[in-house]
UniProtKB/TrEMBL annotation:
<feature type="transmembrane region" description="Helical">
    <location>
        <begin position="201"/>
        <end position="220"/>
    </location>
</feature>
<feature type="transmembrane region" description="Helical">
    <location>
        <begin position="58"/>
        <end position="78"/>
    </location>
</feature>
<feature type="transmembrane region" description="Helical">
    <location>
        <begin position="20"/>
        <end position="46"/>
    </location>
</feature>
<dbReference type="GO" id="GO:0004175">
    <property type="term" value="F:endopeptidase activity"/>
</dbReference>
<keyword id="KW-0812">Transmembrane</keyword>
<dbReference type="GO" id="GO:0080120">
    <property type="term" value="P:CAAX-box protein maturation"/>
</dbReference>
<feature type="transmembrane region" description="Helical">
    <location>
        <begin position="129"/>
        <end position="150"/>
    </location>
</feature>
<feature type="transmembrane region" description="Helical">
    <location>
        <begin position="99"/>
        <end position="117"/>
    </location>
</feature>
<keyword id="KW-1133">Transmembrane helix</keyword>
<keyword id="KW-0472">Membrane</keyword>
<feature type="transmembrane region" description="Helical">
    <location>
        <begin position="162"/>
        <end position="181"/>
    </location>
</feature>
<dbReference type="Pfam" id="PF02517">
    <property type="entry name" value="Rce1-like"/>
</dbReference>
<dbReference type="InterPro" id="IPR003675">
    <property type="entry name" value="Rce1/LyrA-like_dom"/>
</dbReference>
<protein>
    <recommendedName>
        <fullName>CAAX prenyl protease 2/Lysostaphin resistance protein A-like domain-containing protein</fullName>
    </recommendedName>
</protein>
<feature type="domain" description="CAAX prenyl protease 2/Lysostaphin resistance protein A-like">
    <location>
        <begin position="132"/>
        <end position="239"/>
    </location>
</feature>
Length: 250
């Protein structure tokens, strides 16, 4: 069994009603921020690493993700009277077991998107260590860490505190899936949907992400171990990121 021991400081929510209003409102605002960033990418793209996918555009990586989904929510969190350590430094009952569990979750994430491997192997001669590092660090810093901290650790925890586990998981999953809509609606043209086609984006992105959100929400509710979620999330995004760097179309 994976167990995590928390101090009172790490589990206490100071003002759940006020904080849910603040972070819930921010989740709604964030959808608008993504909408704006998507329009900026469409009209004034700043692609990085030679990639064509919007997920590797400066507007998306730096502004939409690192600034607006990581830095600002953490700033608000700390401004509410919490120490950053209460968000990040968990006390494990067994560091060895949890290290193994984290590695297993990372491996599981990699296996989920193993279907990219045949196409990646075809161009394996073009892969270098820098590509591998970027493919790990970009999803980690711009997706796994900010999304799991905001939507699970911060938002879901406060919804659960007020309305219970089921509603917490369900509502945080809705918020998690909805922020993916604007970017795909304006920019996608692959298996995640066709730009301008609401139904294709809903079926290709929003619904699958909602299901993924439910799974991540269940894992957070059960283990309260964000490192497992971050490892799983980073593993899932690794091969798609590497494929984008290699110019592989999905």
């Amino acid at each position: 069994m994976i167990q995590t021991e928390f101090s009172a400081e790490q589990t206490a929510i100071i003002h759940p009603e006020t904080e849910l209003l603040i972070f819930g409102s921010y989740a709604g605002l964030y959808c608008i921020i993504i909408w704006i960033c998507s329009l900026l990418i469409k009209n004034y793209p700043i692609p990085l690493f030679g990639c064509q996918g919007f997920g590797n555009d400066l507007w998306y990586l730096l502004f939409a993700k690192i600034i607006f989904l990581l830095i600002i929510p953490i700033f608000i969190y700390c401004n509410r009277g919490y120490n950053l350590s209460s968000l990040l430094q968990w006390k494990f009952q067994s560091k060895g077991k949890n290290t193994i569990a984290t590695a297993l979750f990372l491996t599981l994430g990699l296996l989920i998107n193993h279907n990219y491997l045949p196409r990646i192997i075809e161009v394996k001669d073009h892969i270098n260590i820098m590509m591998v590092l970027i493919s790990f660090l970009i999803p980690l810093l711009t997706a796994a860490i900010p999304e799991e901290i905001f939507y699970r650790v911060i938002l879901q925890t406060r919804i659960e505190k007020l309305f219970g586990r089921t509603i917490g998981i369900f509502c945080s999953s809705i918020a998690f899936s909805l922020f993916h809509f604007p970017s795909r609606f304006f920019l996608s043209n692959d298996m995640e949907g066709v730009a301008g086609n609401v139904l294709s984006v809903m079926m290709g992105t929003v619904f699958p992400i909602f299901i993924a959100g439910l799974i991540f929400g269940l894992l957070w509710s059960k283990f309260k171990n964000m490192y497992l979620l971050i490892a799983l999330h980073a593993g899932i995004d690794f091969f798609p990121q590497l494929a984008d760097l290699l110019g592989i179309k999905t």
